[in-house]
Recover the amino acids of this structure.
């Protein structure tokens, strides 16, 4: 399967203030993510950890300060606008993108307000279509339910990656 979303060295910094009184926050520090068609990856972190900023950069809706985002091998924002769909409300899950073309779906679960069974069914449908799904959540339970890769975002860095299905298979093998 081809690479749907590739993020390399993504950095984002917010600066606020006026003249000689400025404050800065490095929200994303060298983020690397690769999603292939059909992949599901969940980014877990506390409120304010940069999950939504990461999602907006991955959708091409927010310009990063460094690094690169590629959608199906293309770095143009026009490609991002066509092939990446950012979902921030439950009604957004109805958007699937153009037929006969794979997409990257970026789902911010905190703001979605959708029942978990609806999200699970939607994710399975997107995978069946060959789309990649990147989810931002405060709770890794969604990743455990759907068997997705899990990364933790803290201090602007992805600190760990866990593959949920591997744990389940180990438990099944131990029981069998």
């Amino acid at each position: 399967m081809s690479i749907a979303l590739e993020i390399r060295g993504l950095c984002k910094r917010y600066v606020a203030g006026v003249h000689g009184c400025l404050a800065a926050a490095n929200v994303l520090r060298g983020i690397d993510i690769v999603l292939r068609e059909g992949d599901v990856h969940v980014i877990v972190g506390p409120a304010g950890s940069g999950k939504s900023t990461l999602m907006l950069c991955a959708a091409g809706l927010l310009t990063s300060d460094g690094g690169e985002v590629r959608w199906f091998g293309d770095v143009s924002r026009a490609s991002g606008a066509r092939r990446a769909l950012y979902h921030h409300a439950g009604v957004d899950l109805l958007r699937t993108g153009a037929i006969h073309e794979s997409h990257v779906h970026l789902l911010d679960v905190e703001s979605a307000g959708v029942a978990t069974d609806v999200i699970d069914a939607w994710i399975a449908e997107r995978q069946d279509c060959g789309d990649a799904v990147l989810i931002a959540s405060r709770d890794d339970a969604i990743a455990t339910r759907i068997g997705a890769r899990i990364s933790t975002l803290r201090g602007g860095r992805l600190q760990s990656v866990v593959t949920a299905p591997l744990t389940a298979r180990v438990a099944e093998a131990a029981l069998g």
Notes: Strands lie at 3-18, 21-36, 40-44, 66-71, 84-87, 104-108, 132-137, 149-154, 157-163. The first strand starts at residue 3 and ends at 18. The first helix runs from residue 51 to 58.
